[in-house]
Sequence to fold (365 residues):
Amino acid sequence: MRDLLRLLSGRDAVAGALLIMAIPAHVASAPQRPAAAGARPDVVRGIYNWIHSTADPERAFPFYRDVLGIEVARSPFGGPAPANAAPERIRPVSGAAPDPLVWDLTDTKGSRFRNVFTRAPNTPFGLELSEFLDIPRETRAPNAWDPGASMLIFRVRSLDPAMDRVKASGAPVVTIGGQPVDTSAGRAVIVRDPDGYLVQLVQASAREIAAAAPGDVISTAIGISVADTAAAMKFYQGLLGFDVRETRRASAAERQLHGLTAGELTQTSTHIPGTSVAVVFLEFKLPAGTTPAARPFRWRIQDVGAPQFQLQVRDLDALIEQTRQAGYRFLSIGARPIQRAFGRFVFAIDPDGVLVEYVEPAPPR
Fold:
């Protein structure tokens, strides 16, 4: 690790912003089911980070800090913090730098990039807010039923005080009635962060709380809205080996949670291979005349709210070829991975426009 850190300088330090080395959990919480035919169950080894783009990290981050106790984290590429190190801070706009390799990776020629690394309690992967500057970007607050929308799902120690902090922040509430509703997973509510990004808060069970380390967040999951669950599973289960745990029809209260009074919601729960991290895929069927109607996203990485997986993979070249042959698109120019001292990485695009970064770490030195 010391050798790796010594190699990182200049542009490699900037690229470290795109590869936070959060440690994945390696023990799943339920027995693994066989992957779909054609899947490579060992191609994905874990998740480094979940990222979504922001219009302004100085404005967005305080919501997560004040409501959920999430903290700015030191980049793992900086090595251990000295005993007298100052607290980590958000890099100012003046520190955002252009990097041609990042342009190739993210198709953002001419941009500058900055981010803030954060860590949530009891969460085995990093959460990152990224911002691309000097490039056109779209700002559209998603509804939960828009294909390509995503949300962070936090199970919390005590929902009522968290809701008090949400109200103090002025964050909009998506859930009909403006208050938590009872669901099969516990009392829950969906709100928006300062960018309009969707955040779900769920009351954790007494058993979950007893087993957790200190902190307001007891666990973190990821939610993704899709146009067609079967098509999404061809990508995530069939290509990447995600483990499908359950598919279920949501209740009326769960529709209300997401801001709907009618229609259907089907939820498919999966786990990322090599981890206990849950990813829930949501497919909505709306009644005719629903306002606003569902609008699929066609994400660019600089668009505010753009969702991004950062997955650890093996045999990157073979995975790129399999992704091509399956007909999926790439964000990275020419589907070519960029090379850094710490590994190679490339962005693919899932069927609903979610950006999926394949990261192949460099062999240990």
Q: What stands out?
A: The chain has a mean pLDDT of 88. The chain has one domain: 2-361. The two ends are 8 Å apart (CA to CA).
